[in-house]
Amino acid sequence: MGIYTIILKGSLGYNGGQEDLKLIEFEQKYWNYYLTLENDFMETQRYVSIDENNYITFSVEYAKQYQTICSEIDVICKDYCKFLEPDIKAENIMGYASVLLNHKPDLITRIVKIKTVATVVLNPWCDWKTDNVSPFDRGSEENNSPVWWTYYNKVKHNRTGLDSDNKEFFKYANQINTLNSLAGLFILVMYYYKDIALSESQDNVTIPNPPSRLFELKDWEKQFILFNEILAMNIEKNSLIYND
User: Which of the four, 27, 102, 118, 162, has the lowest number of CB atoms within 10 Å?
Assistant: First the structure.
């Protein structure tokens, strides 16, 4: 359960008009797609519960979702980097790191909580690093990708290959890597959405609507614009609190 502050149309702190268009477009093109990916993952819980004992469970379904999620991370990172640095062309995970980690250094410490499983917390970007001097030097120890991103590339390009322990890379298409990649995408989408809101002078809007059913960010203020007028009718007059 979470408490959300709602900014009703026409209420104090909501400007309305043309400035909403980028937020609406973002929700339509990115947030709704994220929610579809999230729903697909939540469907897997009918068969495999989110639990440490199931983290290494692998399947064709996880492989499909894992690759789809990471592909969307690639899309979001490119677009977000262009938003932050229009003159820089970021094309891969190292390029994304050189832009995003300089603008958003707290990405690597951001914690994702699972609403339905209190014992599981995720820090998907914790091992992402960039070398500010040589951001594209693959030999630099200061350049590092998240482990789940590394395994995504192995699953994508070499799934029948073996690691140093003779484990097939396909088996890394498991629950924990899929979950971490989805949490990583969630963080990026939330940051990007909030920055668009700030650019449109909507500094009190911090999450898309409807909110995630699976995740929430620790220490992230929960405010969104309520566009659904039918839902607005069900909220007590003048109330700005909504219990999820």
Answer: 118
**114 contacts: CB under 8 Å, gap ≥ 6:** 50, 120, 121, 122, 214, 215
Looking at residue 144, the DSSP 8-state letter turns out to be B
Instruction: Please state the domain count of the chain.
Output: 1
Rounded average pLDDT over 86-110: 94
Q: Does residue 40 form part of some domain?
A: yes
Please name the helix (run of DSSP H) or strand (run of DSSP E) that holds residue 220, with its range, or none: none
Residue 67 has pLDDT above 90, yes or no: yes
Q: Calculate ∠ Cα 64-67-73, nearest 5°.
A: 140
Q: Please, what sign has the CA dihedral across residues 50, 221, 102, 36?
A: positive
Written as six digits, the tokens of 8 are: 């009703």
Give a yes or no: residue 128 inside a domain: yes
User: Contact, 80 vs 100, CB < 8 A?
Assistant: yes
Asked if 173 contacts 161 with a C-beta cutoff of 8 angstroms, the reply is no
Range of the domain at 177: 18-201
Q: Is the pLDDT of residue 228 over 60?
A: no
Q: Does 43 reside within a domain?
A: yes
